[in-house]
Amino acid sequence: MQPSVPGFPLKKHLLPVCFKILFDYRTKVEKVLTFSSGVLEASGLYAYAHRKAGELNGIIREHVRIIDDLLVALISPQAKTFTVEELSKDYDYPDVDLNVIDADWW
User: Fold this and answer.
1) What is the per-residue pLDDT for 25?
2) Exposure pattern of 55-72 as b/e (b: 16+ CB <10 Å)?
3) How many of the other CB atoms lie within 10 Å of CB of 36?
4) Which residue in 46, 50, 71, 100 has a CA-CA distance of 20 to 30 Å to 80?
């Protein structure tokens, strides 16, 4: 199964460029979506501004799935998935509890 975009003929030589455009866009959007991620406490207008940004980010997250789905189709047209156990066994992927590691830094 090859990735396809309705209404556009598949031209394999353009797939890397298409991927780069979508990936760069998605990377930039992620920076916007994490705008308030470091704010632990706020009040007044400061809290209001971050709350409004968070509301808009929720809307953006719902719609950015369109880009995510295209990226998945370009990366793995068969939509292959792997368990952490498979990755650990076959590719030496670290199977660690990130919460424990994060807690060590607090």
Assistant:
1) 97
2) eebeeeeeebeeeeebbe
3) 14
4) 100
What type of residue is 102? Answer: D
pLDDT 10s digits, 49-96? 888 999 999 999 999 999 999 999 899 888 888 898 999 999 999 888
pLDDT at 29: 96
CB atoms < 10 A from the CB of 74, how many?
Answer: 17
At residue 106, what is the residue type?
W
Count of all residues that appear for the chain in the document: 106
pLDDT for the residue 4: 61
Please calculate the CA angle 77-4-30 and round it to the nearest 5 degrees.
70
Distance CA 30, CA 57 (A): 10
Separation between Cα atoms, residue 21 and residue 71, nearest integer Å: 10
